Amino acid sequence: MSNETIVVGSDHAGFSLKETLKEALKAKGFETLDVGTNSPDSVDYPDFAHKLAKAIEDGTATRGVLVCGSGIGISIAANRHSVIRAVNSTSPEMAKLARQHNDANVLALGERLVDESVALECLDAFLNTDFEGGRHQARVEKI
Q1: Is 101 a catalytic residue?
Q2: Which of 12, 50, 81, 101 is catalytic?
Q3: Which of 68, 81, 122, 136 is catalytic?
Q4: Three-state DSSP string of the chain
Q5: 136 is catalytic
């Protein structure tokens, strides 16, 4: 069992997948902090990206998962925060490389573009891959 807290957030277009991913995190033993949204009613994705970023900035959570319709807008909003390295992933390989080479701390997914099984594979890759450091460390520091 992990004592790591993962913060999750979504807009209305990502609500269903967020709920699925939250349950998967709990089943893997992670503590979860859900910053919303809490229904499929229309909302603005930046609000939830900023809430997620704040939880990582203040140390409440170590990593995060964001979902919107495409994964694009919500990852752009999260990346406005200097401590966030959010990757919009459409495959487990992307999630793995983002962890290995970029020390990504937020996984973003698009509910309209990635089916549930692939999203769960992306989550596993994100959770189970360590940052390689080494030659990648200097590059990450330049971000």
Answers
A1: yes
A2: 101
A3: 68
A4: CCCCEEEEEECHHHHHHHHHHHHHHHHCCCEEEECCCCCCCCCCHHHHHHHHHHHHHCCCCCEEEEEECCCHHHHHHHCCCCCCCEEECCCHHHHHHHHHHHCCCEEEEECCCCCHHHHHHHHHHHHHCCCCCCHHHHHHHHC
A5: no
